[in-house]
Amino acid sequence: ATGIVPFYKTIIISNNLKDELTKTQLLAIIFHEIGHHEKRHILKLFFVNIVLQSIFFWMFFLVNRINFDVAIFEPLSIAIVGGIGGFIFWYVPSKISFLFEYQADKYSADYYNKDEIMIALTKLDEISGGEISKGNYSHPNLQKRLKNIKNQ
Description:
Layout: H1 15-20, H2 23-38, H3 41-65, H4 73-127, H5 131-134, H6 142-150
Helix pairs in contact: 2-4, 3-4, 4-6
């Protein structure tokens, strides 16, 4: 799912998914992506990033105003702020995205079919060579997602 402007929101489905998934599995995935749009996940992440970027620039501004007596402290302080800011830029949106995946799975289960989204996620795991099972910084692993869907 992509886009934050109402008439330009898009869901992109690759040809291999059209070939590998059944129509019901494909619909379950499409409803998952619709869930991202309906819950305005992309817009929310956009605003989170704007807030984080503002905080990041404010931190650099404050550090830049400090007059250090020892020359090494200035680049060191900028490196520390950069490291902290970079970590925050990575960590906060990825954890929010992690939660949004659960919400989009729930949307598909509620508005389409609970069993089909579980089957579709399992099939996507097969197609991806087990990548869904692993999960990553912004997506829960398959077992957590399936458990979340079952517990609804």
